[in-house]
Amino acid sequence: MIGSMRNKQIQPELQEYSFLSPFDDCTVKTLLEDKLLIPRKIRHFLRTKKHIFVNEEPVTWQSLVPKDSHIRLLFDQEDYPAKDILLGDATLVNCLYQDQHLIVVNKPAGMKTHANNPGELALLNHVSAYAQTTCYVVHRLDQETSGAIIFAKNPFILPLVNRLLESKAISRDYWALVEGHLPSKDLTYRDPIGRHRHDRRKRVVDVKHGQLAVTHVQALKSFPQQRTLINCRLETGRTHQIRVHLAHHHHPLVGDPLYHPNPKGRLMLHAHTLRFTHPLTQKTIRVEAQSDSFQAQLTP
């Protein structure tokens, strides 16, 4: 039965991760601590178990690691204990990119990014079944939002991708269909966003107590029925950021169940492009996610 299998049946006892170091010459200690952000406890295990190899040779803590060296790290259950997770339905996953460390998929509208209750299945469960390993959430999309989303395939890569997210090195573009016509083709909204005082599901523009939120908006196409297709690029990643900014400026997203006064149909928000530099290979990863349901509602 889907969801009855646990990841303990597919998680290998010893996991190996290898890559060519993209970093300038440094010591093994610097590589693990400052470049790869491996926690102190795990670094200790790698050192005492001699699970670090550079160009297939065992190394000491002060050994030099030249750029482009082949790095091989071994992790066991003591290093990263297996996380027990329900496996979902792999056939529900539309994979856009995958390697040993990361997977980017096209999330369908109406599906949660991760489960909130025991026994519940969400995209994370389906992606873990598809990848045949426990995956980890890097960033989230609202349940009603569709499009490209990144998952880490192991806990080793997770802090590296999180650092990309925190340093705004992951570029995310969204398509949205909004009510009305924008006053100009290019706009930037910088309204701080905070929690709604009376509805825990919602966020509001809160100049006094809100967090900085920056959304760059470009009008792509205007429609006769007083609607506009826009592209939004996030500079920050606050909850409901695009939805709150556009609603606050009197252009709520079509179909928005929280911020539109009369929502009809699906929420018209789709993460169509993701761009970032892979933290291990240093290659530029760019993916585009298509949405038949989104496109269908744009067709007259």
The proportion of strand residues reads: 25-35%
Alpha-beta classification: alpha+beta
> Approximately how much helix is present in the residues?
10-25%
- What kind of sheet is the major sheet? 10 strands, mixed
Encode the helix/strand succession as letters.
EEHHEEEEEEHEEHEEEEEEHEEH
Please tell me what the overall shape is. elongated
* Number of helices, counting only DSSP H or I runs of 4 residues or more: 6
The residue ranges in which pLDDT falls below 50 over 5 or more consecutive positions are: 1-9
Number of strands: 18
Question: What separation lies between the terminal Cα atoms?
Answer: 42 Å
